[in-house]
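[step 3/7] fold_predict: job queued, chain A
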Amino acid sequence: MEALQHEDSCKPRVGLAAKPPAPPTSASLHGPITGVIIANGSTDVEAQQRNDSQPAPNLQNGTGAGAPAPVGNDKSKTEPDLTSLEAPYFQPYWSPAFFLTCFGAILVIWVFCWLYVGAFWNPTTRLGNLHVAVLNCDMVPGGSTLNASFIASSNLSKLVPAPLATSLLSASIWNKSSSLSRLLRWENGSCTGAGDSGRVCGTPQQEADCLASYSDDVLQGGAWALLYFPSNFTASYLSFFLGSGALGGAQNQRPVAHYVYARGRDYSTYTYVGMIILNNLMPGLSQKLTWGLANNPGVLQIMSPTFLASGISVSEVNLAPVKNFGQHFASYIFCVLLWLGSSFVVVSSYQFKLKSEQDLLTNREHERQQAPGAGVLRLRHVARALMIKGVIAALFMFVLMVFLCIVLWALGKGTEQWHLNPGYAIAFGWYMSWSFIAINAVLLHVIGIERFSSVTAFLLILQLTSASGIMSIEICNRFFYIGKGLPFFYGVRGFRTIFFGTCQNKMYINWLVFTAYNLVFAPLGLLLVTHRVWTAPNRARKQHRDGNAAGMGGVILPVAMGS
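[step 4/7] structure written:
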C-alpha cells in the first residue's frame, strides 16, 4: 500500500482551476480522503491499478485541468490542493440564509442608530448626575475690622444678619423647591479647622489649603467643578457702604466668587456645567441681591449706587485649558484610528500567508505522518509565523501612532499641548493598540472572517458612545456605563492626561487595564491562531468531503493564497 501511495504521489495531479471538483459520493463520506477517491466505492488499490494502465493527462493539449472527467466505472476525482480548497465558499442567493443575513444586518444597523442617537438624546435631563462642590468660606467681618460709627448708624445685624453668600445660596441651590437645586448635584464642602478663631474655613492658610485640595479633586476626576466663596465675600459687599471701613478702608471692592473647573477633562460636558453656573446661578444671585437693594430706600442712602450696576461677579479658574479643540478631539479620534489600524492588521495577517504557513496548509496527511520529526517542524513553522507577523503588526501600529502625533505637530505649529512629553503619548497609544490587536484577533478567529467586519464595527460604535469621548457617560443613559469595562474609556482618559494633565492620579489604572486586556486576549488570540493553522488541512478535507462551508459560528479557511 505504501508503495502504491508513493507511486501515486509521484504522478502529476490534475489542476482544479478551470473546473471545480464534483460533489463527493456517499461512499467517499465514510473515510478520510488520502489519495484517489473512486465514485463507485472501489478501493484505492483498485483505483491505482486502473490508473496505472491509463496514460497521464496531457496538460499541454487541453486534456488536463479543462478536460471532461472520465465516465463509467473509471470516473474518479483527484483530491484537490489545500490552496484551492481555501477559495471562498459560496451559498445560493435565493435562500433563507440570505434573507436572514439581510434581516440581521438591518437589526445591527438599527442598533447602531439606537446607540449613537440614544446616547446623546437630550442630555440636559441627566445633568443632575454631575457633581459640583460648593465651598462657602464667607463670614461676616468682625466688629474690630469695621468703623464703630458705621456699625452704630447702619444697624449691622439687620444689614447683614448672615454671611451674604450663605443667604444667597440658601434661597437658591440649597432650597429644594428651587429649580436650580435640581439642575446639578450640589455638595456642601467643608474644611479642616472649620470654626477655629470664628472662621468658617479655619485660618487663612487652612482656607488656602482647603481650596487647593478641592481644586485638585476637580482636576483629578472628582467633582466636575468647584464654586468657591472666599471669606471676604461679605466684607467686599460692605465696602460699597460709605464709611464702613471694610477691607481696611478700601472702597467699592466687588464681591467675587470663583468657578474652578478643568476643561481638558471633557470639553462638551463643561459647556453644560458652565451654562448653569455662569449663565443661570450667579447672574440670578446678583440680580436678586441688587433688586432687593433697589427697593430699600434706607439702604440706598448709605450705599454707593455703583453696586446696583455691578453686582457680584464670578472669576473663572480653568485648571486644564484647551487651546485647540482639535487636540481635545484627538484624544478620542486617536483611539478610533488605532482600532481601525488594528482591525486592518488582523485581517491582513489572516489573508496574506508566509511561506511557512503555506507549507503547513499544503502538506498531505500521509507526508506529515511519514516525515521524521514532522510535529516539531510544524510547531517551528507556526512559531516563526506568529513571531514575524507579531513583529510586523507591532511595527505597523508604532508607525501609525507616530504619524498620528505628527498631525498634532503639523496643525498646532507650537501651540499643541503636552502635559507629558510626546514620547509618552506614542508609548501609551502603542501599548493600547496591542490590546486592540488581541481583541480583534480573538473576534476574527471565533466568529469567522465573514462576520468579523460587522461585529468589530458594532464594538467600535459601542465604545464610541460609552468612552466619554464626545460627552461624559454621566449625562448619557446608564446603559453606557458599560464603557468603563471597555478599552476606549481608558484610552480617551489617558490621552487627556497626556495632553492636558487631567486625572493624573488615575493614569496607572489606564496602564493596568490595558495590561489586563493584553494578558487575557493576547494568549487567547495566539491559541486560536495556532489552532487554526495547525488544523487547517484536516478542516479542509472535512469541508471538501462534506461539500459545504463552515457552519454558523464556525471558522472557515482563509481566502485563496498565491504560491
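[step 5/7] annotate
Confidence is low (pLDDT under 50) at residues 1-80, 82-88, 549-563.
Residues 374-412 form the longest helix (39 residues).
exit 0
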